[in-house]
Design brief:
With 234 residues, the protein is an alpha/beta fold. It folds into two domains: 117 residues, Rossmann fold (3-Layer(aba) Sandwich), CATH 3.40.50.2300; 95 residues, Winged helix-like DNA-binding domain superfamily/Winged helix DNA-binding domain (Arc Repressor Mutant, subunit A, Orthogonal Bundle), CATH 1.10.10.10. 41% of the residues lie in helices and 21% in strands. It contains nine helices and twelve strands. The strands form three sheets. Strands 2-1-3-4-5 form a five-stranded parallel sheet, sandwiched between helices. Helix 2 runs parallel beside helix 3 and helix 7 crosses helix 8. It is elongated, with a radius of gyration of 19 Å.
């Protein structure tokens, strides 16, 4: 079975690549994304998906895991190793709901992991949340999420108008997580970005810093993803 490339409405510049070997799933996704005005491309296996991603430079890539020629995990690994696709979001959309599959997905650099079946409106909401992260990426100096304000210039954190005192590493860890709400940061990524590659730090250090941050801003803001890492929840 060969799927032809399908173009959705060109009303919006956002491009989405759907990589799945099930034609019915692809058509359902294409139909619902078309109604939202996205421009869509399709591929039927991981090998074709990687090639199409390099050609089209989509804003978001939806990947199934179980596919012929190349599975979604390997496809994601190749996409994440390509610097020209660094701006593309990758979300797994799969029937594989096992914890080890989800962990494997995040380990190769996925931004989200969505299990089938999922209602179209819920999926659209998840997609919009992913694409909106780019707006947060541009906020270099400060981040404002509800009643929480994080100012990178002054290293100030304000919650409901009250200034909080955070040591440098706690601040940098909070800023990292809050810079991309709902994105799961693996422990390895946190260690590399906050402590650096040349510093020897154990995983327990992250847990201690997370606990201290939660004591100051509340437990509900930072969610633990078992076996993977942490994410900031709005």
């Amino acid at each position: 079975m060969v799927l032809k490339e399908e173009n959705c409405s060109t009303l919006m510049a956002k491009k989405i690549l759907i990589v799945d070997d099930e034609r019915d799933i692809v058509e359902l996704l294409r139909y619902n994304l078309e109604k939202e005005g996205y421009k869509c491309y399709t591929a039927e296996n991981g090998e074709e998906g990687v090639a199409k991603a390099r050609e089209k430079k989509p804003d978001l890539i939806l990947l199934d895991i179980m596919m012929p020629k190349m599975d979604g995990i390997e496809a994601c690994r190749q996409i994440r190793s390509d610097d020209t696709l660094s701006e593309s979001f990758v979300a797994f959309l799969t029937a594989r709901g096992e914890e080890y599959s989800e962990i494997a997905g995040f380990d190769v650099g996925a931004d989200d992991y969505i299990t089938k079946p999922i209602k179209p409106r819920v999926l659209i909401s998840r997609i919009k949340a992913l694409l909106n992260r780019k707006k947060q990426d541009k906020m270099q100096d400060s981040i404002e999420l509800g009643e929480l304000l994080i100012d990178r210039n002054t290293f100030d954190v304000t919650l409901r108008g009250k200034r909080l005192t955070l040591p440098k590493k706690e601040f940098e860890l909070l800023y990292l997580l809050a810079s991309k709400p709902d994105k799961v940061f693996t422990r390895e990524a946190i260690l590399n970005k906050v402590w650096g590659l040349d510093v020897s730090v154990v995983d327990r250090t992250i847990d201690v810093h997370i606990r201290k941050i939660r004591e100051k801003i509340g437990n509900e803001c930072i969610q633990t993803i078992k076996g993977v890492g942490y994410k900031f929840v709005v």
